[in-house]
Amino acid sequence: TLGADGSARTSVDIPQTIDGNSQMFVEMDYQDANGEILTASRRVPLFASAVQLGVKTDGWLMKEDDLRLRLVALDPQGKPIKGQRVQVALYSREVLTARRRLIGGFYAYENNMRTTKLSASCSATTDELGLAQCKIDPGVSGEVYAVATTDDGNGNTARATTSVWLAGENEWWFGGDNGDRMDVIAEAQEYKSTDTARFQVRMPFREATALVTVEREGVLSSFVTQLSGANPVVEVPLQGVYAPDVYVSVMAVRGRVGGWKLWWADLARKWNLPFFSREGAAPTATVDLAKPSYRIGIARVKVGWEGHRMGVTVKADRERYAARDTAKVALEVRGTDGKPAPSADVAFVAVDEALLQLAPNESWDVLTAMMGDRPLSVLTSTAQTQVVGKRHYGRKAVEAGGGGGGDLSALNRENFQPVLLWRGKVPLDGNGRTSVDVPLSDALTSFRIVAIALGDKGQGFGMGETRVRTAQDLSIFAGIPPLVRDGDFFSAGFTLRNGSNKAMTVTAQVELSPRVATGRDLTVEIPAGGAVPIAWNMTAPKGVEALGWKVTARDASGNATDAITVSQEVVPAVPVETWAATLARVGEGGSIAIQPPAGALPGVGDVRVQLTDTLVPPLQGVRDYMAAYPYGCFEQRMSKAVVLGDMGAWNGLAGEMPVYLDRDGLLRYFPSDSMTGSEALTAYVLSMAAEAGLPLPDGPRARMVEAMKAVLDGRLRRETYGDVRLQKVAAFAALARQGAASGDMLGQLGITPQDMPTSTLADYIAGLGRVSGLANAAQLRAAAEAVLKTRLVYEGTRIDLSDKGNSPWWMMGSGDEAVLKAVVATLGRPSFQGETPKMMTGAALRQQRGRWDTTTANAWGVVAARKFQTVYPAEAISEVTTASLGGRSVTRSWPLPDPQRSFVFALPPAGAPTPLALSQSGGAGPWAMVQVRAAVPLTQPLSAGYRLTKKTEVVQARTKGVLTRGDVIRVTLTVEASAERNWVVINDPVPAGATVIGSLGGQSEMLAQGEEGSGAQPSYVERGRDAWRGYFAWLPRGTHSVSYTMRLNAAGRLQLPPSRVEAMYSPEIRAAVPNSPMVIAQR
């Protein structure tokens, strides 16, 4: 528990002796003001000594008789230590290399390191800044390590080490390996465009000829130089055109060792003579040690960024504001030359920093984006690999070789929008300055204000930012669960914070909207600078979709007050669904038996009757189903927008299209770079957009059209399962509907109408009608329509298909979808003039529980209904329609306005069926869609093609055997699949207020480490506040398990709907298991 100052101390035993500095990863759980239990983490350094040493050289390259070192001594808090005596010892490091002969006349290197302590040393005492210097004459060249040591007051030794290369008369030897690589080390990672870059070439030669090239998209410059082992350094003059980066390649070639050197080498090896080179030897039948050799290395450096960096200053008139204040922010922009830039384009944004903690916005750094990494597009090849025997024939990798106030009594805080202001362009005055007024929201938080500048004609980029915060003496923070289920008994928590330097006695009041309950006033004492939690316990009511909480707080003196309004979503624990539905003609005799489904909750549900004067079925059940549909891939979001006629939702989805497109122009089901696009989805989107009249953005549309052409040509295929010919027909139909098909594409289909499943045949017929300039289009379409007619089978008036078992489920196809696509494709065709009404009626009777089977089928059904109404207008209905159920009657006189065509009856009690009588006083009656809607809880596991099991284990508990708010549990879900399907989803509900670990912000890293899975794993995961959902792009037969971890943030008795698994495009394959309510004690 934290003390009055908001801090606490604890001791942690270190289990082992620390040898050198190390780190300890520490996590702390705490209750946030929003009601969640969050985790703060930190890596705590563990020091072996009370003195922290640092050592560095004065330069990158030094001489063998002049080594200058700089030392620093700090305490663990980072403060300088004065008078600390530091000793420095030197060690030389030599690489001893021998070449070993291999089979086939090749050779390999064997390297050994030899470290020798040098006699040279120094000592120094730190000054008041904790700094010291010393100068040493090592007396050797090559690689030298400087080891600085000192003792603290307890005798614990601190060490610091650095290495430096000393230039001298001796050659440097860097060792070698069996490949063609060597390291090229840049002196610095970034240079100005006028600088000269220096690179250390770590070659295993005493001398070599080097080809030095500056590369990127091509070879920008090159030169040849001689390298010596005594000083293997290359200097490369830089130019402005090298910006933003270049790759410096050094290819070092050592020629054949020949002449008198061979005789000396043989003599030195034979008699073991010192001071003589043993490199090279006369070639023999088995080995040639004098053969030429080469190495290549590449280093990347940044160049010329300073010529593109603009100066942007953002400054607010003060740091602290009250809620709803206006912050006056001054901007100043200077160009790359440091002068005012009045013509610069400036974008301005102010955003809540809490949002940035969830997902930082890196797009603001335009300079880094515009000066981003440019790839190396040059490959270096040499014929030396063919004449110089080597064990390794690899090219050098591109990796660098080393390198508040006022009266707030009338203020009710309810506007918590995270984005305060966004302006795409802010004009500047002649001095490159301006001022922007930023209206602050009601949130008591910190805001970041950012300005992004673009120089005139794109010359320069810059970004500046500042922070402001809002605060007041008395503040209320809401900690209620954002979502609850009806019947949940939960604790609605709020936090009262005293921001003044005096204690307060505060009284809080609560008001609900709608007024389903009342709460008593709560009075608490809050110390200066402190915070106190308060809570009201309640049961979430039934029949409401949202609860509005208005909480006001006032101190006893009346000087400090605050009010806050927040909304809480309420969803049904057992949703009301359509369990039975039928379409009947009023006046054709008989009644409809109405009976609640077995296990239905009493008092919940109704009988809905919808009247229509056309053959098009009422679509309210379809709309209800799609509005409540819980999943949200691209297809499902589009289908929902089509069914609901929601152009706003479609425009938003269309704006997100670029992030759904893969590199080939195919749409992904989810916006994840790890996923590939789908031919079936892309074809569906293009076809549905055309049929439903939805506009497509030009750029994404063009890319999708090209992708469909590639699919048709056989150049592109991502979904390798299923018949590729069906994909080609879908692509052809999509192109035709978009006006991008041509007659010669038919020759690429490779399939006849007789071999097409009905869903594909409907696409083929629709495509033929949209291709212009096709000479035999009429004959082809007539032949295809004749095949379609042979597929139609009627059971009474309900339509079926003779090939219903051949629906391509892997292309989101189903029996309902095939029938509805056939209706769309044949509407208005003379050969189907008398058939289409029968097809529409038969399609309506295919509905189960008031809807068709899949999301795509429901979208095609709505399109078919809209188009059918334009071809076949409504009948003229007259007189009076009467409906009677359970002693209540409803009468409607025709003609009827749309709002009066729907009415409901109370659901009869369980028992014997109750008849619903429908009658017409005269003439032909309307069509009536009757739906029985009820809430039926799942009490037993359900298995149909899948079997689902669920295991819950406690990861972290406050009290053993009792779940407490703040505890962490892990859920493992196991699916046994008897059939393989694409796009399968596991939907597991989480209790109100729970947070799935792994979602953004403030979550533990260590608690999620125990998550395990086997078999197939989700391709995409949604961590919602109502459920965890894992989507599988392909789920094969077999057993698969996944797990996730969540923290319980709300106390009470919380309802949980069933856990489910289902194939989204084969909904008959599914499984579900019921969940018991979760009881969570208060912390």
Please, could you describe this protein's structure?
The chain is of the alpha+beta class and 1083 residues long. It folds into 7 domains: 52-167, Immunoglobulin-like (Sandwich), CATH 2.60.40.10; 183-305 and 381-387, Immunoglobulin-like (Sandwich); 308-375 and 404-470, Single Sheet (S-adenosyl-L-methionine-dependent methyltransferases); 485-567, Immunoglobulins (Immunoglobulin-like); 577-614 and 876-934, Sandwich (Jelly Rolls), CATH 2.60.120; 623-806 and 814-819 and 826-858, Alpha/alpha barrel (Glycosyltransferase); 942-1080, Alpha-macroglobulin, receptor-binding domain (Immunoglobulin-like, Sandwich). Helices cover 15% and strands 38% of the residues. The chain has 16 helices and 56 strands. The strands form 14 sheets. Strands 45-55-54-48-51-50 form a 6-stranded antiparallel beta sheet, with no helix packed on it. Strands 4-10-9-6-7 form a 5-stranded mixed beta sheet, with no helix packed on it. A 5-stranded mixed beta sheet has the order 12-18-17-14-15, with no helix packed on it. A hairpin with a 5-residue loop joins strand 1 and strand 2. Helix 6 (634-644) runs parallel beside helix 16 (855-871) and helix 12 (758-768) runs parallel beside helix 14 (815-826). The protein is globular and about 120 Å long.
Task: Give the helix/strand layout.
Blueprint: E1 22-31, E2 37-46, E3 52-57, E4 61-63, E5 67-74, E6 85-101, E7 107-125, E8 131-136, E9 142-151, E10 157-167, E11 183-186, E12 190-191, E13 196-202, E14 207-215, E15 219-228, E16 233-237, E17 245-254, H1 260-271, E18 293-303, E19 311-316, E20 320-321, E21 326-334, E22 345-352, H2 353-358, H3 366-370, H4 384-387, E23 419-423, E24 433-439, E25 446-454, E26 461-470, E27 474-478, E28 483-485, E29 489-498, E30 504-513, E31 522-526, E32 531-539, E33 546-555, E34 561-571, E35 577-585, E36 591-594, E37 605-612, H5 620-627, H6 634-644, H7 647-655, H8 657-660, H9 679-692, H10 698-713, H11 724-737, H12 758-768, H13 777-791, E38 792-795, E39 798-801, H14 815-826, H15 836-844, H16 855-871, E40 880-885, E41 888-893, E42 902-906, E43 914-920, E44 927-934, E45 942-944, E46 946-956, E47 968-977, E48 981-989, E49 995-996, E50 1020-1023, E51 1027-1035, E52 1038-1047, E53 1052-1054, E54 1059-1063, E55 1066-1073, E56 1078-1080
Helix pairs in contact: 5-6, 6-7, 6-9, 6-16, 9-10, 9-11, 10-11, 11-12, 12-13, 12-14, 14-15, 14-16
